[in-house]
Design brief:
This protein is α+β, with helices and mostly antiparallel strands. 28% of the residues lie in helices and 32% in strands. Strand 18 and strand 19 form a beta hairpin. The structure holds adenosine-5'-triphosphate (ATP). Adenosine-5'-triphosphate binds next to helix 1. This is ABC-type sugar transport system, ATPase component.
Length: 350
């Protein structure tokens, strides 16, 4: 089922949380809502679920307006950070519970619960109680229980934050697999850009109750619409510097109106190279290597250009203090105006 928000606004006690939000979540896709703490991610999810209602605007599931329907009527499945399993019930009983509430006949619900246990790879633990399971296993049960309702939409609110780093990576792959297998439209809330980038068909980047960009992971990285998205997506974080020291070097490269408006330049670390190979070069600049740091496989090189420091992850090792030319590639260099809007970079032919 696809989900549409039309001009949705929401406030807590007169404090505006979401401002005129418009979006469409396509059917059968996995969408992440990504943004810093307090930006309105859970509020957006709760509006989709029907736990809260908007102050203005419309919410549709498919063609059907659901703005005034509660969570039960909307048929959503929810999984939270805390697994919220029933401790006195076995795994199988936990998965069965929503079907029991929906008065699904007994043999049918037991068969369905076993099928779901298999889907989430928990079939060998069905007679255990939640306390006997690891965090990852408990989250599998929570997902199976949410799917037992045959929800129109599956909503996951930071479901992996209680797991350790390795298990998080494993479980995000699992969620992706389960979502693909079931085809259920899924909305996943996270503040972890790496998680969102790996799991999603599309990512809605929120900041301060406003959608900054709603695109595929690659588009967010290669074609950020503003400085916030450019800085929020990507690791290491993009170099963002004042444009003034670069202005002369860019005079021949960009239109005069862009040159006049640009206040900041964003440069991805891999777009700063010591020698260009096949890639399209934007500009050659003089610089001094000030530092090299090896982090596992990654060599991070610090380059001084005029009074600015740039970090590259795509540089050949040379002696520190060396003067040498470096190159900025076309791909991964962006110019922004004072309001943070992108003026140049990330075009399809770059
Ligand atoms: N029940 C509530 N009453 C009043 N204010 C609330 C309530 N719930 C959330 N807020 C406020 O609404 C804003 C958005 O909260 P929300 O939980 O949607 O953010 P979030 O992006 O999910 O954050 P986090 O990543 O920290 O969970 C925050 O400023 C929060 O303090």
């Amino acid at each position: 089922m696809d989900v549409t928000f039309k001009n949705v606004t929401f406030a807590y006690d007169n404090k505006a949380i979401l401002h005129h939000i418009d979006f469409n979540i396509p059917e059968g896709k996995l969408i992440s809502i990504l943004g810093p703490s307090g930006c309105g991610k859970s509020t957006t999810l709760n509006l989709i679920s029907g736990l809260i209602q908007p102050d203005a605007g419309q919410i549709l599931f498919g063609d059907k307006p659901v703005t005034n329907l509660d969570a039960l009527q909307r048929k959503v499945g929810m999984v939270f950070q805390s697994y919220a399993l029933y401790p006195h019930m076995t795994v199988l009983e936990n998965i069965i519970f929503p079907m029991k509430m929906a008065k699904v006949p007994k043999t049918e619900r037991v068969a369905k619960a076993k099928e779901l246990a298999q889907l989430v790879h928990i079939e060998n633990e069905v007679d255990k109680h939640p306390a006997e399971l690891s965090g990852g296993q408990q989250q599998r049960v929570a997902i199976a229980r949410a799917l037992a309702k045959e929800p129109a939409i599956l909503l996951l609110d930071e479901p992996l934050s209680n797991l350790d780093a390795r298990l998080r990576v494993q479980m995000r792959e699992e969620i992706r697999r389960i979502q693909k297998k079931t085809g259920v439209t899924t909305v996943f809330v996270t503040h972890d850009q790496d998680e969102a980038m790996h799991i999603s068909d599309q990512i809605m980047v929120l900041n301060d109750g406003r959608i900054q960009q709603f695109s595929t992971p690659n588009q967010l990285y290669d074609q950020p619409q503003n400085l916030f998205v450019a800085r929020f997506i990507g690791s290491p974080v993009i170099n963002t510097l004042p444009f003034a020291p670069f202005k002369d070097a860019f005079a021949e490269l960009v239109a005069p109106e862009i040159l006049a408006q640009a206040t900041h330049i964003g440069i991805r670390s891999e777009s700063i190279v010591s020698a260009p190979h096949q890639e399209a070069v934007l500009v050659k600049l003089p610089g001094r290597i000030t530092r090299h740091d090896q982090y596992g496989r990654e060599l991070l090189t610090e380059i001084q250009y005029k009074d600015q420091q740039l970090a590259s992850t795509n540089f050949k090792q040379t002696a520190d203090g060396d003067f040498q030319a470096f190159y900025l590639l076309k791909k991964g260099v962006f110019l922004f105006n004072a309001a943070g809007h992108k003026l140049m970079g990330g075009e399809a032919d770059a």
